[in-house]
Design a protein that fits this description.
Shape: globular
Strand order of the largest sheet: 1-2
Order of helices and strands: HHHHHHEEHHHEEHHHHH
Number of strands: 4
Distance between the termini: 44 Å
Helix content: 55-70%
């Protein structure tokens, strides 16, 4: 993994958007919650939230985080930011854990937790800036990038929730209905609004979000090929391959994810980033893994083994929906 950028070199300016100052975050969270009739106890989402229904299923971590991360880093700006400012070689799970803590605060936290998470998100994005390297995307080498570019943040946001919904449908015996997906996505849009994304530019429903992502995945370029005109553009080259290598050096082993599971769960356009499974046994291995995860999600013993954040939410609110 590359070392951190040489801070003696001039970095591009990365001013925080005016709507992401601490005072603006606090005011916006209050406005959103008060407008929805939510007390401070419930935080950002109402009782019976569809997004909470999805996020509280513990086995989603095993395949959702992997799918989301691989999708995210296919974006050259995200890959360069991860390559320059994260250390997957020594801490391959760190970024995923931080994302998980952020999501737990947004989905299960009270109003103060939501505000604190959004402020932390802003601080983290303040430092991310640099220039795209030849190894990340030759066609865009030398282009300045920052952590506040809206289309790239929208890609990360969509990747996280698409992976969450996908994983729920794979693991749970009864998949989400169209109405449930749309309701959950609109709650995800609310989270996007908290972190400064313009709700008018986010997809109005799940199907539109999925079509937006699929168009970019279908246009994924690689190697020395020129990138698509679609923004955000997706490109597979050395930097993202190194990130994927570091992920698969440890993370799948920790979670019991084999090459077959990764192959099934990662978008087909991004298969070059995951190990190639034994194709003769690949599907059988996936079915065994999926069915085992279903048992873990639905068995009486594990039904109460929900995330600590969800247990704390139930204790705080009395909401057992």
């Amino acid at each position: 993994m590359a070392s951190l950028p040489d801070l003696r070199m001039p970095l591009p300016p990365n001013p925080r958007p005016p709507n992401m100052t601490d005072s603006e975050i606090v005011a916006r969270v209050d406005l959103i919650c008060n407008g929805a009739g939510l007390t401070s106890t419930f935080g950002l989402l109402p009782a019976g939230s569809k997004l909470r229904k999805i996020a509280r299923v513990k086995p989603l971590l095993n395949i959702g985080a992997l799918r989301a991360l691989i999708s995210e880093v296919a974006n050259p700006v995200v890959a360069e930011g991860v390559f320059d400012w994260s250390d997957f070689t020594n801490d391959p799970t760190g970024r995923m854990e931080r994302t998980g803590l952020f999501l737990n605060s947004m989905i299960f936290g009270d109003r103060n937790a939501v505000k604190a998470a959004a402020k932390g998100y802003a601080m983290g994005h303040d430092r991310v800036r640099g220039f795209l390297s030849v190894g990340t995307c030759p066609d865009r080498a030398g282009e300045a990038y920052t952590g506040w570019q809206a289309d790239d943040r929208e890609w990360v946001h969509a990747s996280i929730f698409e992976a969450m919904f996908y994983s729920y449908d794979q693991i749970m015996p009864v998949p989400l209905t169209t109405a449930e997906r749309n309701a959950a996505w609109l709650e995800a849009v609310r989270i996007g609004q908290v972190i400064g994304l313009d709700p008018a530019t986010l997809a109005p429903d799940y199907a539109s979000m999925k079509a937006w992502m699929n168009a970019r995945l279908a246009a994924t370029s690689s190697g020395l090929n020129p990138v698509s005109v679609l923004r955000p553009q997706l490109h597979i080259h050395r930097s993202v391959q190194l990130i994927a290598r570091d992920i698969f050096a440890l993370v799948p082993a920790l979670w019991g994810i084999t090459a077959a599971v990764a192959w099934e769960t990662v978008p087909v356009e991004l298969h070059p980033l995951v190990p190639t499974p034994n194709m003769a046994t690949q599907h059988l291995q996936w079915v065994v893994f999926r069915d085992t995860q279903r048992l873990a999600a639905t068995s009486p013993l594990d039904f109460i083994a929900l995330s600590p954040a969800y247990r704390e939410y139930r204790w705080r609110t009395g909401d057992y929906s």
